Amino acid sequence: MKKMKHYVKPECRFKCRFLEITPALWLCPHAAFGEASYLKGAVEDARVLLARAGGYDVVLARVVTEEDMRRTAKAVAAEKKKADPPASEQVRYG
Fold first, then answer.
1. How far apart are alpha carbons 64 and 12 in whole angstroms?
2. Which of 15, 30, 32, 62 is in Cβ range 3.0-4.6 Å of 43 for a Cys bridge?
3. Amino acid 2: pLDDT
4. What pLDDT digit, counting tens, does each position of 3-20 carry?
5. How far is CA 5 from the centre of its chain?
């Protein structure tokens, strides 16, 4: 049996989405989450970098469009594989 990688995404109490700045720091407009959120100046520096990148809304829109593109590409690949399976997956009798 194959094990799945499982982790919990943090949630803001205002139900907005956290952006992963680093694996140890997640930011939303209201809060910070992760091990680095306790380091002095880490959150402020990350917010400055987020502002330089265009702000929370711009970066979130970019992340959402990338996720949608990945999701549609995966669906197209699954449809193609279903419509034309590789020869190794075809069953031959006789």
1. 17
2. 32
3. 63
4. 665 566 777 888 888 888
5. 14
Token pair in block for residue 90? 């075809």
**Residue 24 tokens, joined:** 């140890």
41-86 pLDDT tens trace: 999 999 999 999 999 999 999 999 999 999 999 999 989 888 887 7
> Is the CB of residue 46 less than 8 Å from the CB of residue 21?
yes
Residue 34, class by beta-carbon neighbours within 10 Å (0-12 exposed, 13-18 middle, 19+ buried)? buried
Strand, coil or helix: 17: strand
**25-27 and 19-22: which strand pairing?**
antiparallel
The C-alpha atoms of residue 75 and residue 83 are separated, in whole angstroms, by: 12
DSSP summary character for residue 71 = H
| DSSP string for residues in 21-68 | EETTEEE-SS-EESGGGGSTTHHHHHHHHHHHTT-HHHHHHHHHHHHH
